Amino acid sequence: MNTVVTDKAEMVASTGDVVVRLENIGLSHDHGRTFILRHVDLEIRRGEFVAVLGPSGVGKSTLLRVIMGLIRPSEGTVSLHPSPTAAHRPAAMVFQDAKLMPWRSVRRNVELGLEGLGLTRLQRHERAMAALDLVGLADMADRWPRQLSGGQRQRVGVARALTVEPDLLLMDEPFGALDAITRGALQDELLRIHARRQGTVLFVTHDLDEALVLADRIIILEGHPAGLRGDFAVGARPRDNTAPGMRAMAERMRRLIAGEEDPGADAAYWQASEI
Amino acid sequence: MTPIRSIWIRPLLGALGLIVLFGTWETSIRLGWVPSGLLPAPSSLGPAWLEEVRSGAWIQAIRDSLTHYMMGLVIGSVLGMLTGLLCGAVPLLDGLLSGVVRVLRPIPGLAWVPFAILWFGLDTAGATFVIAISVFWINFYAAYGAVQAIDPDLYEVAASFGHGGFRARLRTVIIPASAPGVLAGLRTGLGQAWMSVVAAELFGVPGIGARMMQASSLLATDLVVVYMLTMALLYALTDTAFMLVRKRLLGWQG
């Protein structure tokens, strides 16, 4: 079950240098008797916006934590290739429910990752304020997290991750708990920010529509143990998600997520030209 | 109800309740419902207090008791808090001490009085020891529980942003997150320590408790009540001071 459906994503991707490379990642909590993740190989290049799509509970968040270094894989290697810039962190994460520290003001929450980077208090302050400005919450800097709405809290979570200028921004279903209107607004904002800073994003979601709105490339994670079942280049913007090619590709992804299709059974790959 | 009225209504009701209590107390003695030998009349408390102040005994008793109180409170609270925090944060230590805690925990501070006298004598150190033990457990469990209740995801957040080691976790998560629980325990201990002060001093260590004991052996019930009210006053003062500090520390809770 190692076959991955691909639509020549590598053609699009080969223009940038590799930010993170996963080689044969496997994760087991019982010394190799059962695996949660197995044989995961993945390369993400600078500037890509990649969505990891899969059913709930398949191990998407776990994969993100392995990349973040919060969980040590049982097999394989994760290699991050950070840029040589000073005072930044190679990877940063946006968590599902923002997970702000309630005893820190909004600004001090954003400064969390800046502490320990050798910055002065003033530099930390300035960078945090710039990040808050980016997500439109500069005037909330002195509030407490409990005074913010769910959407605002998640914006602060995004600012907290962006301010460390990560080579790789990991997002763990960050908008999953929000109402549809707020989610849409934050998706738009994320795309705007991404277009501006040209960073690299790995975005976990179980929502196919969300992946189609946000990502340039969609990876399907499915199975027990979970592995990569598909790798799709979604195409350039502006894109029409109602075009026949897109709809057919979306249907293909849906079947892969649902486990209704064995990726190895079908040799016909999706061509980028069809979209 | 307007906001201004709701601010004042509770203290006013509280004062009214006190007036009713002292009023019925006074009248029931005046009318002879209660024999005056069993209970002093509130009107006799003022003169008794003035006499006690004039002799210097009142100030001296407060000074002695306050010394026991502060020393016992500080020693017991700091030790209890630290042990509780560490047990909550370090599973190995938690496991090692779980048996010890089970054995020692149910023993009240007062049960240690014989040893307090034996080891420290009938003086400040003995009283301090008894008070420290009784507040130790309150602070231990408050801190322990507060650490156990921390959202484990916050450790993940801290680790993701470069605060991964034990000391970094302690500083960025454990201490600030457990502060409300720790301070709640400290406040409970603030009251518990006053109870222990009297109990410890009833055995003869000089202070408010000892003075109450002397007064009761002379059937000076008015003096006993004067010291009861003195304690209530001291407790109210320490608790108010504490709440002011707490408000500054935990502004984020609103």
TrEMBL record, chain A:
<protein>
    <submittedName>
        <fullName>Nitrate/sulfonate/bicarbonate transporter ATP-binding protein</fullName>
    </submittedName>
</protein>
<dbReference type="InterPro" id="IPR050166">
    <property type="entry name" value="ABC_transporter_ATP-bind"/>
</dbReference>
<keyword id="KW-0067">ATP-binding</keyword>
<dbReference type="InterPro" id="IPR027417">
    <property type="entry name" value="P-loop_NTPase"/>
</dbReference>
<keyword id="KW-0813">Transport</keyword>
<dbReference type="InterPro" id="IPR003439">
    <property type="entry name" value="ABC_transporter-like_ATP-bd"/>
</dbReference>
<dbReference type="GO" id="GO:0016887">
    <property type="term" value="F:ATP hydrolysis activity"/>
</dbReference>
<dbReference type="InterPro" id="IPR017871">
    <property type="entry name" value="ABC_transporter-like_CS"/>
</dbReference>
<dbReference type="InterPro" id="IPR003593">
    <property type="entry name" value="AAA+_ATPase"/>
</dbReference>
<dbReference type="GO" id="GO:0005524">
    <property type="term" value="F:ATP binding"/>
</dbReference>
<feature type="domain" description="ABC transporter">
    <location>
        <begin position="20"/>
        <end position="248"/>
    </location>
</feature>
<comment type="similarity">
    <text>Belongs to the ABC transporter superfamily.</text>
</comment>
<keyword id="KW-0547">Nucleotide-binding</keyword>
<dbReference type="Pfam" id="PF00005">
    <property type="entry name" value="ABC_tran"/>
</dbReference>
UniProtKB/TrEMBL annotation, chain B:
<dbReference type="GO" id="GO:0055085">
    <property type="term" value="P:transmembrane transport"/>
</dbReference>
<feature type="transmembrane region" description="Helical">
    <location>
        <begin position="7"/>
        <end position="25"/>
    </location>
</feature>
<feature type="transmembrane region" description="Helical">
    <location>
        <begin position="112"/>
        <end position="138"/>
    </location>
</feature>
<dbReference type="InterPro" id="IPR035906">
    <property type="entry name" value="MetI-like_sf"/>
</dbReference>
<keyword id="KW-0813">Transport</keyword>
<keyword id="KW-0812">Transmembrane</keyword>
<dbReference type="Pfam" id="PF00528">
    <property type="entry name" value="BPD_transp_1"/>
</dbReference>
<feature type="domain" description="ABC transmembrane type-1">
    <location>
        <begin position="62"/>
        <end position="246"/>
    </location>
</feature>
<keyword id="KW-1003">Cell membrane</keyword>
<dbReference type="InterPro" id="IPR000515">
    <property type="entry name" value="MetI-like"/>
</dbReference>
<keyword id="KW-1133">Transmembrane helix</keyword>
<feature type="transmembrane region" description="Helical">
    <location>
        <begin position="224"/>
        <end position="245"/>
    </location>
</feature>
<feature type="transmembrane region" description="Helical">
    <location>
        <begin position="71"/>
        <end position="92"/>
    </location>
</feature>
<keyword id="KW-0472">Membrane</keyword>
<dbReference type="GO" id="GO:0005886">
    <property type="term" value="C:plasma membrane"/>
</dbReference>
<comment type="similarity">
    <text>Belongs to the binding-protein-dependent transport system permease family.</text>
</comment>
<protein>
    <submittedName>
        <fullName>Nitrate/sulfonate/bicarbonate ABC transporter permease</fullName>
    </submittedName>
</protein>
